[in-house]
Amino acid sequence: MLKNRLGVDAYFCKPSAPWQKGNVESGNGRLRRFLPLDTDLADVPDEQLQAVAARLNQTPRKCLGFRTPHEVLSEQIVRSR
């Protein structure tokens, strides 16, 4: 479905294989700096979730050449037009 609609391949990691999902685990670790593991997201105000998302998307990443996820996504959007 992703391949047909978006033109991208999808790969699903095995739940018992954390070495297959390094980026997911890294992202979870970043998120846990702001929202502890036992946080019920239904109880978190939308404004707080938006602030956390903005903070994460504006943080430079080594894996992106020290660009932010927002910068990389913006570049991809411009290229696809």
If you had to describe this structure to a student in words, what would you say it looks like?
There is one protein chain. It contains 4 helices and no strands. The chain has 81 residues and is mainly α. The longest helix has 12 residues. The mean pLDDT is 90.
The beta-strand count equals: 0
- Round the mean pLDDT to the nearest integer and report it: 90
Number of domains: 1
Beta-strand share of residues: under 5%
Measured distance between first and last alpha carbons? 22 Å
Gross morphology is: globular
String of helices and strands: HHHH
Q: Rg, please?
A: 15 Å
- The helical percent reads 40-55%
Q: How would you concisely characterize the structure shown here?
A:
The protein has one domain (2-80).
List keywords for this structure.
globular; 0% strand; mainly alpha; 81 residues
Topology:
Blueprint: H1 2-6, H2 22-32, H3 46-57, H4 69-80
